[in-house]
Design goal:
Elements lengths: L2 H5 L3 E3 L6 E4 L2 H6 L4 E3 L5 E3 L8 H23 L3 H5 L9 H21 L5 H28 L4 H21 L5
Antiparallel strand pairs: 1-2, 3-4
Helix pairs in contact: 3-5, 5-6, 6-7
Length: about 180
C-alpha cells in the first residue's frame, strides 16, 4: 500500500480494524465521521479545530441544511406546493422548474450539512459565502417579482426571511465570530 497516499488521507479506513480500504471519493469522505485524535490528556478531539471553532456558523449551517432539505423534498414530491403558497400556480408541464429548484436545494443542503462538520475558517466562510449569494440574489429576484405583483404579502415575507438569513450568515462568518 502506498504510505504517502495513506498519510494524505486519500484512503478510507475500515472502522472496525483501521485497515486502509483504498481511494475514497471526496463526497464519501465528507459524509464519513470526522477523524479523531487522542490528545495528551487522554481525551479525544476532532482534527482540524475544536468544536467551538465557528460554533455559531456551524449550527446555522446545520439548521439551514435541515430547512433546505425539507424544501427540496417538498419540491420533489409535490412540485406545485411551495410555488402555490407564493401565489404561483404551476401547470403540470411546468413541474420541471420546481424539479430544477429541488435539485439546487438538495445541493445546498448537502453543502450546509458538510459545512456544519468543518472547522477550517476558509472552508466555512466559502460555504457561508455561497449561501449568502444564493439568498441575496433570490431576495433581489423575488423583490422584482413582488414589485410586478403588487400586494403579494407572501413574497414580501419570503424576501424579509432571506434578508435575515443573509444577515445571519454575514454575522456568523465574520473573522471575529471564531
Amino acid at each position: 500500500m502506498n504510505a504517502g497516499l495513506e498519510k494524505d488521507g486519500d484512503y478510507g479506513r475500515n472502522l472496525l480494524n483501521g485497515q486502509a480500504l483504498g481511494p475514497v471519493c471526496p463526497a464519501v469522505r465528507l459524509l464519513s465521521p470526522i477523524p479523531q485524535q487522542k490528545a495528551e490528556n487522554g481525551r479525544f478531539h476532532r482534527q482540524g479545530g475544536t468544536m467551538a471553532s465557528f460554533g455559531g456558523l456551524r449550527k446555522l449551517l446545520l439548521i439551514h441544511g435541515v430547512i433546505t432539505l425539507a424544501a427540496a423534498i417538498v419540491l420533489a414530491v409535490s412540485p406545485g406546493a411551495i410555488p402555490r403558497m407564493a401565489g404561483v400556480h404551476l401547470v403540470p408541464d411546468d413541474d420541471l422548474l420546481a424539479y430544477l429548484l429541488a435539485g439546487a436545494e438538495f445541493g445546498i443542503a448537502f453543502l450546509s450539512f458538510g459545512g456544519s462538520r468543518l472547522a477550517e475558517a476558509r472552508a466555512l466562510r466559502l460555504i457561508a459565502g455561497g449561501c449568502i449569494v444564493f439568498h441575496a440574489t433570490s431576495a433581489l429576484l423575488e423583490a422584482y417579482a413582488a414589485w410586478r405583483q403588487m400586494g403579494n404579502s407572501l413574497l414580501v415575507a419570503n424576501i424579509v426571511a432571506r434578508i435575515v438569513i443573509v444577515a445571519l450568515f454575514v454575522w456568523f462568518s465574520r473573522p471575529t465570530a471564531r
